[in-house]
Amino acid sequence: MTEYNEKKHMRMFRKEAREEGLKEGREEGLKEGRNHLIKTMLQNGASPEHLSEITGLPLSEINVISQNEENRFDLLQEARGKRKRR
Predict the structure, then answer these.
(1) Looking at CB atoms within 10 Å, which of 3, 6, 30, 36 has the fewest?
(2) Looking at residue 8, what is its pLDDT?
């Protein structure tokens, strides 16, 4: 009887953990997609103020997303430069 309850409990625990993982994955995916869209729109000339209005995100968050893209680009350029020197 105890073994049955343990198995049942473990199945419930795994199910809850899986559901939580899926929820977190969806949320992260949505955030990545939103950030990608914002970066693309900024590269195509949209103003941070306009994107803030459209998305409802604070201007400071739009600027952080923009800065992260610029930093990523700098790191890629730096890495490519190092590879060429080798």
Answers:
(1) 3
(2) 86
State pTM to two decimals.
Answer: 0.62
Q: How far is CA 46 from the centre of its chain?
A: 21
| Three-state DSSP string of the chain | CHHHHHHHHHHHHHHHHHHHHHHHHHHHHHHHHHHHHHHHHHHCCCCHHHHHHHHCCCHHHHHHHHHHHHHHHHHHHHHHHHHHHC
Average pLDDT by stretches of 10, the chain with 86 residues: 80 93 94 92 94 94 84 62 52
Instruction: Please state, in angstroms and as integers, the Cα–Cα distance from residue 47 to each residue in 4, 44, 67, 84, following that order.
Output: 60, 9, 14, 35
The dihedral built from the CA positions of residue 30, 35, 40 and 42, taken in this order, carries a sign that is positive
Q: How many CB atoms lie within 10 A of CB 34?
A: 13
